[in-house]
Amino acid sequence: MSACLACEGPLDRLGAKGDWVYAACRRCGAVQLDPPPRGAELRALYERGYHHDGHYYRDAARHQRERAPVIEQVGGHVLARLPAGGRALELGAG
Known about the structure:
33% of the residues lie in helices and 17% in strands. It contains two helices and three strands. It has helices at residues 39-47, 60-81; strands spanning 11-17, 20-25, 31-33. The longest helix is centred in the last third of the chain and has 22 residues, at 60-81.
């Protein structure tokens, strides 16, 4: 596994979806892809335009239901590491 992109801390594998492996930092709780896409792989992801064609939102309720388990897992992982009254900043992917 790589080191955390935010703080260079050690990573723990959260799970995988397709070719992507999600990992969480033991030190700061940040979640990232491991390894993160770079160079040509990253360009190819954005060239496909998946984020502009609207397919995610044609059935917003279905989209939300399908993503809820992942969001709950990742969110729970982050929240469990926050101190009482702590806050988290989600930067998004785009």
